[in-house]
Amino acid sequence: MKTKLTLLSVAILASIQATAAPADSLVLTGVIDGPLSGGIPKAVELYVAKDIADLSQCGVGFANNGGGTDGEEFTFPAQSVSAGTFLYVASETSGFTSFFGFAPDFTSGAASINGDDAIEVFCDNVVVDTFGDPSVDGSGQAWDYLDGWAYRSANTGPDGTNFNVSSWTFSGTNALDGTSSNATAGAPFPAKSYGPQTDPGDGGNNGGNDDGIDGSVCFNCPDLDKIADASQFSDGQYYAQVFTALNNNAGAGQVKAVLSDTISANHRVLSYGEVWTALTATDQDPQNSNNVTLIYKGTSIAKSSNGSGSQSSNPDNWNREHVWPNSHGFGSQSFEAYTDIHHLRPSDISVNSSRGNLDFDDSDAPLSEAPQNRIDSDSFEPRDAVKGDVARMMFYMDTRYEGADTTPDLQLVDRLTGPGEAALGKLCRLIEWHNADPVDSTEQMRNDAIYEFQGNRNPFIDHPEWVDVLYEANDCDGNDNGGGDNGGEPQEPGDASLIFSEYIEGAGGNNKAIELFNATGASLNLSGYQVLLYANGSTSAGNRLDLQGTLPSGGVYVIANSGSNADILAVADTTASVTFFNGNDVLELRKNGELVDSFGQVGNSNNFAVDVTLVRKPEIISGDTDSSDAFDYNQEWISLGTNVFTNLGSHNGDTGGDPGGDPDAELGQCGDEATLISAIQGNGAASPVQDQSKVIEGVVTNSVANLRGYFVQEERSQWDNDANSSEGIFVYQGSDSNLPAVGDVVRVKGKVTEYFTKTQLTAEGQPLTCGSAAVEPVTISLPFEHAGVPESLEGMLVNFSHVLSVTDNYNLGRYGDVGLGNGRNYIPTNLHVPGSPEAIALAERNRLNSIILDDTISAQNPDPVVYPTGNLSANNTLRTGDTVTALLGNLDYSFSAYRIIPAEAPTFVQSNARTPAPELSRGNVTVASLNVLNFFNGNGQGGGFPTARGADDLNEYQRQLDKLVLALAAMDADIVGLMEIENDGYGELSAIAQLTEALNQHLGEERYAYVNPGVSKIGTDEIAVGLLYKPQAVSLQGASRINNQSVFSRPPLAQRFAATDNGAELTVVVNHFKSKGCGGASGADSDQGDGQSCYNATRVAQAQALINWLATDAELSSNDNQLVIGDLNAYAKEDPIRAFTGNGFTNLVETHVGAEAYSYAFGGEMGYLDHAIASDALAAQVQGVTEWHINADEPRALDYDTQYNHPQFYAANPYRVSDHDPVLVSFNLQGVAVTGDFDGDGDVDRNDISALMRAIASRQEIDMAFDLNEDGVVNTRDVQMMSRLCTRTGCATE
């Protein structure tokens, strides 16, 4: 028999999976004992079979030589990981990378396995998979993989503790001997072949975007919106500070610093999934808008042939080439550079693999698959046509990433580099290529496209002459410092430097810390310095910490374990994972990749500093720059014993300042002359004293540990009289501890900087406390009077004169931010004609009526999300329209927007509460419209995920289905139009069939059916429209109709219905018009700048085609009651809607709900794209209209998607089932008059005869319509005539 996957069975299966996860989520798929010197690479491959929210629940154990289990020796870090991901745990990095051409995901000394060792995989402290027998030495056994490999067969495992040798294939022992790479092996390790691979960040929710690229442009791609308009780009404004530096004859280093700040500002960091979508626009083939151009081959390939998910196994598809290899400085998506599309290009999968992570240089031999390119063992040479493009991308990377953010300082050097270095060569060759291949129009257009999606530009395309400024000829003399980095020469022995000055490895617990000491004799900028931890004898660094801020001469910087006791944490400047060390682990201190100091011997796993506190000897002022030699701490260190913490926080009796001098000599004393904050802020966008050191004295108004700094405001008596200059400033201390208290009057010295255009003071030491004082906030209101107002208040303590409304919660779960305004903001073209003065004025007001409430947490996907009060959850939502009644905080600027850093917890009021069902006055027939947010059901049998859109796996599908069923049940409409449902036909495994089945199971009866138009698919798009209906309420009249005119990419579906109570008919046409995304738009379909975005001309043509169809089609035009519903991707006053209302149709939402109706939120503005448009005849029969606000008001974090959403965000309820609200219209349809129906119940029976006889007998006034024999009077002869008109035999009643 066939097995149907019912709603109940799916729910049970999902419940089993949820409780079992992650036990069956991680599969051990491969082990290798490599042929290189030392037997490397030694590694295991694992496959993520199901999404794992927290990978730290799992780990690996390596059972050596049959000695039994060693337990879980390596634990994965805390991070989420998607199904379809391959993970590699290796004993080291360099050998693995050399052999495979890509870096391992994780390294552990415990992974130093041989071919006779068994492997165990643990999740939640339980063995979930096993290779070999931990109690048996594998030498000579069937599973022996000495100098070879073993690989799991597809569709097997995990096996728990029961190793099944028949599930594995083997290379045979010694099969890899003599090979230098997997690519050249006679029996290569079948890497990543166990199952379909999904790139992290791909797939998922495709809703919420109407101004960018529709994700359907490529396979498994998300939508992507624009954040800038290249047509409005001003070179003079964008590069103003660079021009100033050049005009002032600044040196290359200074120019590079300014340029780095310029191109870092407004840089939106894309997800790796969004990169797919972006590249379809940035690298679009100019001769074929359906294709992209491959960077190395130069050939054109379909955008849809991207190597995502199940398409990744085809080597002829295209993928995302990191032109600066990600193994050179940014190995994961946590680094900004990983998804920076300035250096990401479409490339043939196999060509990309051949290029690997090689440096750029003149190379020896043509690449066989793309002979315009050349390759050898240590370098890659791209084809001539893109050599200059490649060079300018590399100059951009070297300039953009200076160590100021998560990505380390990337450096171009004139030498060959190795994997793991944040460097790439060869600089001189790139300069040569730049000169030989100048900028062309294609490169310029790509720069414009990137600007629109990522927000920043490549300056070496806009100004190629700047290459000569930053990369002078003397950069090609063989030095390794990189272009213009001012990194200085490598540390020479004996030079005073930043050094390790104290080491604490406490006994019993996590009392661990390291201290750094500035022995240089001058203030030291810590940018570019990095602390690295080498665990358990590994030769590759694991945890690392990039330092920031400024350390005064003689100052110390304390890095502690977050689990340390209060004594350690009291003096800590920061906590970091580089303190997760034991007494056999090694530490390095590097500056721009050069070794400055070390503690221990890299590669040696012997204990050497267990349970001990060590301080550096006073005479040591330079570091140990050889971390490979034997280490004896007695040579340079003094032991203080075990668990001694009293010396931490000072070195040689010093915590800062010049040795032997007055530590406050430069800072001065309280009350001494200081620079006014208003003088630092100035009355323009940037400080007039930028990059100068200044002393300020003022009152602390907010101390923010998460921001590692505090706000200071000038005392009222010191304010200037300039309304355009701020009296407040943020002081970046660089530490989350020892911050001054609110109300302290402090004196602090620091460097004035423009941090992403925010004026701030970077402290050069601890502040001096000078008493206390109170500050009254400045009361402000929205909308701002003009755009300059918030800049004039930057850093100041403010409150508001009015209640604030929540206007934007789109990124609440992702970044913790909330958009606020004085009342809602509405899409201008929802209220006014596009391009009209009123629409333009509203757009400007919206811009001024916006401020962000910041949560002060810089991490993405914070857990918990602190807004609203009590933290965000499925049952504690924060909806747009809710209000904030008290808000006190500092006006700040970051991430390209003004925001409030709260000084007190905000007060939230649930002013826009959820409703359990639509509030609607109902007639005899109710029609609803709902966009179902890419509802795809896999193969209909529980598998087949991920599909082109929608849910990534069965769990997400079940979550989406449960929400959708509950929403449809609560709507209780007689007819439902659906948009964005999978276009997979109408069989029992189709999405619409299984949705209908699940809905009926929930209702406990066969209440709904779906319209089957008798075709396999409607059109060719991945998504389609559909119709559900209640057979007890309405019946189908005639066949359904599909409009296949070429103007429709998603054809409309029409169906006539008749009300079962009176036979009244109406025609419903369900639609999904062309989206506003601009991918491929040209001519009249390009953005006209009137607020209607792209493809407006197409949408108008679709509206007109629909109007003509309803007027001329014989079946459809026979009924005057016509209703157009669906997602028309046009707001109320836009041209497509006015095409209907100007041709005998009525916008029912506008006439019955009002001008401020909405069903969709975009960019903090509300409007409706979801319509109910009725013919005038039908409009007269409306009983009620409503939009049920279950989606547009809700944070997207509450939907079914699990990618970034924490478990507490989801509940099986109707809220955030989609990004569009459903629209419901109820009618009192008037039935066709039935001759002889005296009592008006739609038929003629004995009740009508009796009623007419009584009326005649009592001499009532009777309608002459009942003069059935037409003799001019109503009498008993008409009763006789009525009996001949009876509906049923014998004039029977029902």
Describe the protein's architecture and organization.
By secondary structure, the protein is of the alpha+beta class. The protein has seven domains: 21-184, Sandwich (Immunoglobulin-like); 226-476, no CATH class; 498-641, Sandwich (Immunoglobulin-like), CATH 2.60.40; 664-775, Nucleic acid-binding proteins (OB fold (Dihydrolipoamide Acetyltransferase, E2P)), CATH 2.40.50.140; 777-913, Beta Barrel (OB fold (Dihydrolipoamide Acetyltransferase, E2P)); 925-1227, Endonuclease/exonuclease/phosphatase (Deoxyribonuclease I, Chain A, 4-Layer Sandwich); 1246-1291, no CATH class. Helix content is 18%, strand content 24%. A nine-stranded mixed β-sheet has the order 42-43-48-49-46-45-44-47-50, with no helix packed on it. Helix 4 (240-247) packs antiparallel against helix 5 and helix 19 packs across helix 20. The longest helix is centred in the last third of the chain and has 18 residues, at 954-971.
Reported CATH architecture of the largest domain: 4-Layer Sandwich
Number of domains: 7
- The top-level CATH class of the largest domain is Alpha Beta
Spatial separation of the terminal alpha carbons = 42 Å
* Structural class by helix and strand composition: alpha+beta
Largest sheet: 9 strands, mixed
